[in-house]
Every structure is written in C-alpha cells, then in structure tokens.
Amino acid sequence: MNTPSSRHEARHTDGSPVRLGALVPLTRPGWVEAGRHLLAGLQLAVREVNDTGGIDGVPLELLVRDTAADPERAAAAVDELAGLGVAAVVGEYHSVVARTAAARADSLGVPFLCSSAVLDALTEEPTEWVARLAPAQSRCWRIFADFLLAAGRRRIAVATQPSVYWASGTRVLRDHLASRGGSVVELDATALTPEALCEALVDHGATALLLLVGSPEPAVPVVRAVRGDRRLTELLIGAPAGQPEFAEWAAALGGDGAGIPFLRYLPEHFGPLGERVGKELAQRLGEAPSFVAFEGWDTITVLAEALRSHGTDRSAVAESWPRVTVEGTRGPIRFSRAPGIGVWQWTWAPIQVVDRDPAEPDRFRVLHAG
Predict the structure, then answer these.
(1) Is the pLDDT assigned to residue 276 strictly greater than 90?
(2) Within 10 A of 340 (CB to CB), how many other CB atoms are there?
(3) What value does the mean pLDDT of the chain take?
(4) Model confidence at 8: pLDDT above 70
C-alpha cells in the first residue's frame, strides 16, 4: 500500500495556479447528462473559490478530461494529469471507471476525491490516497431494498447487463432481501428482447422489476414494453442507479417514465448554503440541478479546504482526508474509515428513494429516506 509520506511532491510557491484534474463523462457511451451536471458543480465551486482569494492567493485551475465511461481512457487521463503536476484528481460518475482511476491514482501517489461513484470496492486494497463523497453501494442499495419490502414487493426481478457495478448491486439486493423473506431473479437484458423480458416477468410472478441497465438503451425500450403490457399493470418498476433523475429520461418516456423509484443523495430540506448553491447551479445548467451537481460542488469545496489548511503538495492533501471538516450543500462533510471500505469515506451522504410524480412528471416525490 502506498502511503502519503512515501512520496515527495513539489509545492506551489511561485504563484502559478494550483491545478486539479477532473474526470467527467461528457460523450457517449458515458452518461452525458450526469457528466454535465457533475462538471457544472465542479466549475461553479472553482469559480467561487477563486472569487474569494483562491488557495492563499493562488487560483485554482481545473483541467477537465472526458472519460466517456471508458476505464482505459480514465487511466490514461490520470497518467497525463499526474504529469501536468495536478495537486489532486476529482470527479467521475461511473463506478467501473472510478475504480480504474482510483487504482491508477493510488499507484502514482496522486490524491483522488471521487464525487459520485458508489461501488464499495473502489480500490482492491485499503489506500490513503483516495476519498469518496458518494455513499457506498452496500448502504444505499440496502435502503432501496428496505423501501421495496415496505411497499410489499418481495418477488424482485432485475434486468441486468454484464458489469461489476450491476453484479455488485444484484448481490447487495439478493443478500438483503433473502434474509427478510424476499427473492431476486436475474433476467439478462442483453439476451432477452423487451417483449421476452415481459414474458419472463409474468412467468416468475415478479412484483417489481429493477432496471440494472444502461440508459437510454436498453432501459427506455424495456420501460415502454412493460408499461404497454396489460398483464404487468401492478408491477413496480425501479431504477436504483438513478436514471429517472435526469431530464432526458422524462423527455424519452413522458408519463411512462414517472412512478419509477430511484436513489438520490439529497437532504429532505436544504439549508441556506444548499439553497444558494442550488440556485446558482440552476442558472448555470438551465434546469433544476441533480444530486450529481451538488456532489461536484461539494467535491471542490472539500478539496479547497484541504489545500488551504494542509498545503498543496500531494502527500499533504492525502494526509488531510481524516482531518478535514467542511460544511457542504447537503450537510457537514468529514471522512472516516467505514467497515469493508478501503478508501476514506464520507459517512454518510443523505439518501432518498424518490420518483417522478405521475400527475406532474417534473415534480419529485420522496418515498423513503435512510
């Protein structure tokens, strides 16, 4: 395991900007809308840091790299950013991509503050170089499973695609539900047409279908098929990974995309800071900000405090994770070691299960909180 004290880093003493690398999915097959929201949060916070004096009078500079949901591209970006002298790397939305980026950052001795990825095993071994704002999948997906049980849904089908992230989520759901009288059956969305998937749902007597697949393909065709099947009118469709959070979901599905519960990481009520930042993000985005935009803002705010209070060399940043406490948009942020998690973890971001109101699809309803 690399430790921060094992690396020598140059300090910013010449007045040049403190550079931060940002990993963001901005092109397909990445989740582009999530990437746009994440970047908006990162950029807004950088602007605010610089408007208030930067890091001890030195401005922050954000070097943005598009991962396009490609782990190899992310690893190459970390290599490049490390060579450009960044003090740290931030961002990334896709868990599989973030895992590769975290491993590369750890091997190079570059601090990585992950904004949005939830995969528990973000690194194979414990590391001092990586911290994370998003909650671990084992926590938030168990809360989603509790919501299903409370709603009387115990025969759960999951439409899946091959992915470490989807497999991990399925395992969390199966383990949690099995001990509470529920069951999970997997349906391969790459092998079944939407119509064949509907037949399988009827055959299994499923009471809920969870979309553990990409969006818009194949999630949107699956939703249309299920909504159009009269045998499945009582079936609950869920999307724990959060596809319905974004406007493109509503645009693609209209009313069919409402009433589909998903996870998001926002508090029940924002304080003054969250309200202010939310308004700024809405102006920047031209639409209501998702939780991902707030994750971006919180990321830079945490890192700016680490840089101000502990220095701009990489070792100092990594050593600051357990010592930094920041008021974020969604509550006080501090990092600790959580059982089974190999990175410094905010324990925990607020977690909600929400859906789009069928009567008013642009309005979100909070169904459950954890």
Answers:
(1) yes
(2) 9
(3) 96
(4) no
Give the contacts of 12 (CB within 8 A, at least 6 positions apart): 18, 55, 58, 87, 312
Does position 24 have pLDDT exceeding 70, yes or no? yes
Q: Scanning the structure block, which residue is given the tokens 């970390």?
A: 78
In 3D space, the residue among 316, 340, 307 whose CA is nearest the CA of residue 122 turns out to be 340
What does DSSP say about strands 262-264 and 18-24: parallel, antiparallel, or unpaired?
unpaired
**What is the bridge-based pairing of β-strands 130-132 and 344-346?**
parallel
From residue 335, how far is each of 21, 44, 343 by CA, in Å? Answer: 21, 23, 9
Q: Do 238 and 208 form a contact (C-beta atoms < 8 A)?
A: yes
Q: What values do phi and psi take at 12, rounded to 5? A: -90, 95
Instruction: Tell me the CA distances in angstroms from 297 to 44, 137, 156, 363, one per residue in order.
Output: 7, 21, 36, 23
Residue 326 sits at the vertex; the CA angle it makes with 51 and 271, to the nearest 5 degrees, is 85
- Percentage of residues of the chain with pLDDT beyond 90: 96
Under the banding of pLDDT at 50, 70 and 90, the label for residue 15 is confident
Over the stretch 298-328, which tens digit does the pLDDT of each residue have? Answer: 999 999 999 999 999 999 999 999 999 999 9
Q: What is the 3-state secondary structure (H, E, C) of the chain?
A: CCCHHHCCCCCCCCCCCEEEEEEECCCCCCCHHHHHHHHHHHHHHHHHHHHCCCECCECEEEEEEECCCCHHHHHHHHHHHHHCCCCEEEECCCHHHHHHHHHHHHHHCCCEEECCCCCCCCCCCCCCCEEECCCCHHHHHHHHHHHHHHCCCCEEEEEECCCHHHHHHHHHHHHHHHCCCCEEEEEECCCCCHHHHHHHHHHHCCCEEEEECCCCCCHHHHHHHHHCCHHHCCCEEECCCCHHHCHHHHHHHHHHHCCCCEEECCCCCCCHHHHHHHHHHHHHHCCCCCHHHHHHHHHHHHHHHHHHHHCCCHHHHHHHHHHCEEEECCEEEEEECCCCCCCEEECCCCCEEEEEECCEEEEEEEEEEC
User: Integer distance in angstroms from the first to the last C-alpha of the chain?
Assistant: 33
